[in-house]
Amino acid sequence: DVTEIEEKEAQAKQEEQIMKEQELSNLLHEKRYLKALGLAISLDRPHTVLTVVKAILKEPEGRKHLEENIVRLRKDQKEAVLAFLVTWNTNSRNCHEAQAVMETLLKHEAPDNLLQFSGIKSAVESLLPYT
């Protein structure tokens, strides 16, 4: 019978998830946005990433801080953010944040690098009608 082992594994995963949620909340409170972005991306939480982006943009010189944080993300994290912003861009409440992140990516990534992103073709096709 492996039921007990599976229950323990599920409980461990749930506890780990709760710990990460608390860490994310603490990072946002401490205004450690780069780590918060990385953690939200690793948890695959588009809405949380959007919340972090909004918090950064509310800061004085928010655009500058957003650029600094987005530029420091790894390529796979930037790909995830690109996928998230495609969805954000379709909603008028979130389109400004999506455009700010997209502007940063376009400004700081060479076109050849952008073409290497996974899902770039579908992202561009989805962004065009709303941008």
Description of the structure:
This protein is 78% helix and 0% strand. The model has no long low-confidence stretch (mean pLDDT 91). Helix 3 crosses helix 5. It is built from eight helices and no strands. It has one domain. With 131 residues, the chain is mostly helical.
Condensed summary:
By secondary structure, the chain is mainly α. The protein has eight helices and no strands.
How many structural domains can be distinguished in the coordinates? Answer: 1
What is the helix fraction of residues, given as a range? Answer: over 70%
Amino- and carboxy-terminal Cα gap: 55 Å
User: Which stretches are poorly predicted, pLDDT < 50 over at least 5 residues?
Assistant: none
Comma- or semicolon-separated keywords:
single chain, 131 residues, mainly alpha, 8 helices, globular, WD repeat, TBL3 protein, repeat
Record the SSE blueprint.
Elements: H1 3-29, H2 33-42, H3 46-58, H4 62-71, H5 75-89, H6 95-108, H7 111-115, H8 120-127
